[in-house]
Amino acid sequence: MHTSNGHTRREFLVAGGVAAGTASALGWPLRAFAERPDVGNPLAGYPARGWEKIYRDQYAYDSRFSWVCSPNDTHACRVLAYVRNGVITRMGTQYDYEKYSDLYGNHATANWNPRQCAKGYTFHRIVYGPYRLKYPIVRKGWKEWADAGFPDLDA
Asked: Does some domain include residue 122?
């Protein structure tokens, strides 16, 4: 009886037996059960391991503080800022929305956790970016108007 690809069951079994015999002659199944050599400490001879301390300490921080992020939206998410050497290095989210309330005593649920958008996670890049405001900006016309004592607009 031929299958759809033209081979009989007997031909399939013969080919499988030949493959198994070849594998056993080469020792493939026996090598799987062979005792493994004792390597000891594989990192003992590994060169240049100084990178490991940097890798482990990349998320270390000196202090952290909480703040509210609401850049042009109405969410007002609480954010954790992690500070290292006086510079904010990363942002994290608070997981305690169910623990505090608003002025009216309304509590949020834990379903808000975690609550933060991509703007909040990258806000420290805006704070330390090259285009940040480094001093207050006052328009020249407004400053003159304020110095003149806010005269009426129609005068």
From this structure: yes
Does any domain span residue 8?
A: no
Whether 97 and 108 have beta carbons less than 8 Å apart is answered as yes
Give whole-number Cα distances, 16 to 19, 20, 31, in Å.
5, 6, 20
Cis ω before 37 (30° cut-off from 0) = no
Q: Pull the structure tokens for residue 119.
A: 């703007």
What residues pair up with 23 in beta bridges, in sequence order?
Answer: none
49-60 pLDDT, tens digit each: 788 888 888 889
Q: Using the Cα atoms of residue 100, residue 103, residue 106 and residue 111 in order, give the sign of their dihedral.
A: negative
Per-residue CA distances from 38 to 41, 42, 84 (Å): 9, 10, 43
Give the model confidence (pLDDT) of 75-124 as tens digits.
778 888 999 999 888 888 888 877 877 788 888 777 777 777 777 778 87
**pTM of the full structure:** 0.50
Residue 141 lies in a domain: no
Sign of CA dihedral 63, 67, 71, 74: positive
Number of structural domains (the chain) is: 1
- Return d(Cα 140, Cα 155) in angstroms, integer: 19
